[in-house]
Amino acid sequence: MLLPAVVCMLLVDSCTDAGLCEDATHAVHEGNVRMNYVWPEGTTPPDSMTIMAVRVVNHRKFGMIVSTENLRGHYFYNAPANVTEWVDPDAVDPEPKPESDPTVIGVVVDPEKPNNGGEGSESNPDEGGETEPTTSEEIVVDHFTLPAGTYNFFTMETDTSNVYYRNVNEYLNAAGTGLQYSEIGLEYKVYDLDDEKLDVPGKNYQDYNQGFKYVRTECPAIYVDRKELLEIGQNIDMNIQFQPRMLTQNVDIYFNIKKELADGTPFVVDSVIAEISGIPSKVGVFDGHLYLAKTRKMLFRTTLENTNGNKIDDTTTNEDIRVHGNINVLSILHSENPANVSGPGIMQIAIYSHTEQVDEAGVLRKGSTRRVQGRLNLYDSLVKADLIAYSDDYQYATKRVDHAVLDIETTAVVSAKGVQSGSSQGGINDWTFCSDVSTDENGEPLEL
User: What is the Cα gyration radius of the chain?
Assistant: First the structure.
């Protein structure tokens, strides 16, 4: 009668391989993992990061969210049953409840309270009483308990104010290798120009490169990271250190304004807003593949600088202004033809200005205000910047650099009446005049 003994031995041996153990109660086959983040210098981290842990052999997947401030968090997918809640060691224990009177049986009713829960009470039956038990996903932890084994870890920002994440739940729910991590995508939320959520940084801006949706103004940089083939041992404590990298590109944009004062009408440039088209709308979060079929636009604020790069407030006597903008985007695609005045890779600018005149009493007064607009094909600047590398079949691209500078060589010559357009190169590399609108002090157009 050896058969029962053999069966017993097989049952014991079946759980000696931690990578195959499915019983969450076997703590000896688990490891405790603490997450840490080392951010690039000068980075302002997001509030929280999402983490996906994927066991390579005998696939199991777990989802966690951690605070970047204190590195504590909670599970949001496949939490184990034996989650240990973090307890603040500095917390003050609550005052103990008074002991009940053993001589009183049942519930004591306060006769001074008209609605005490008895007959005739108007209290909401769903309020008060016992609270629902806290689920494993709601418990705050300072480490994550995972079954032992070899893992791939993926981390990305949790914030979805400006973007959507695609296929996250589908990936976590997919059995085995049914869906690859490369199919997790990030896509911009998009808006029309008149949508209040867009937060247009200038009054009554007019679009002269239509046919594209807008992404939110001044989106922050987006960070991701992944760690592959990390071994989580049995019954150990370990740290995983992420070093997030930018999924987006940070781009500094510079161009020069030459104020034309020859007509004798001095004016002051109050502000300049700019718009760039050709921003890819979607990217693979963990392979960086930019999808090129559909592009978006972004409006952004700029600062006015002098030739030394110092921020200035313009004056009537100043003739040269250097304009600087900084944006975080997936990248910027150039147009197919440098002579195009619409499509991707076009920058539009709106210059808000006012005149100043001395009245009969010798007092300097603010005169009329104007909004002038122009546009420029950035083909040469984008080619020179070399922002992306295309795949052999041109179906997607990947970014080449984290940071780039677009130093636009063509100067925008601006008078009180508009942006001066040149024709020396048949429109190529020339600013094209779009509109000249008189406005009131609030930027609203006036009837001419």
Answer: 31
Distances in Å between the alpha carbon of 182 and those of 50, 171, 188, 226? 16, 10, 18, 12
**Model pLDDT for residues 336-358, shown as the tens digit of each residue:** 999 898 999 999 999 998 888 77
DSSP reduced 3-state for 32? strand
| Higher pLDDT pick, 265 / 237 | 237
Torsion-angle region of residue 167: left (phi > 0), alpha (psi -120 to 50) or beta?
Answer: left
Distance between CA 440 and CA 448 in Å, rounded? 12
Encoded tokens for 135 = 């689920």
- Backbone CA torsion sign across 208, 209, 210, 212: negative
- Tell me the C-alpha distance between 78 and 74, whole Å: 11
Measured CA to CA, the distance from residue 72 to residue 92 in angstroms comes to: 20
Any idea which residue has 């709308």 for tokens? 281
Sequence-ordered strand ranges (E) for 307-363? 320-329, 346-358
CA distance 421 to 312: 26
Q: Which helix (H) or strand (E) holds 375?
A: strand 364-377
Q: What's the whole-model pTM score?
A: 0.80
Q: Are 215 and 279 in contact (CB under 8 A)?
A: yes
Average pLDDT score over residue span 384-391: 94
Which residues have a Cβ under 8 Å from the Cβ of 36 and sit 6 or more positions away?
Answer: 71, 239, 240, 241, 242
Tell the residue number behind the tokens 């997790």, with chain if given: 184
The pLDDT score that the predictor gives to residue 204 is: 81
Contact 349, 420 (CB under 8 A): no
Is pLDDT above 80 for 238?
yes
Q: Provide the CA 111 distance to its chain's centre, in angstroms.
A: 57
Distance CA 227, CA 140 (A): 24
Q: Measured in whole angstroms, how far is the alpha carbon of residue 256 from the centre of its chain?
A: 30
The Cα 280–Cα 215 span in angstroms is: 10
List Cβ<8 Å contacts ≥24 apart for 61-64.
61/171, 61/172, 62/144, 62/146, 63/172, 64/35, 64/144
Question: Phi-psi category of 74—alpha, beta or left, where left has phi over 0 and alpha has psi -120 to 50?
Answer: beta
For residue 260, the SS3 value is coil
Contacts within 8 Å (CB) and 24+ apart, 130-135: 135/79
Which residues, at least 6 apart from 357, have a Cβ–Cβ distance to it below 8 Å?
364, 365, 367
- Residues 266-312: pLDDT tens digits? 889 999 999 999 999 999 999 999 999 899 999 999 999 998 889 99
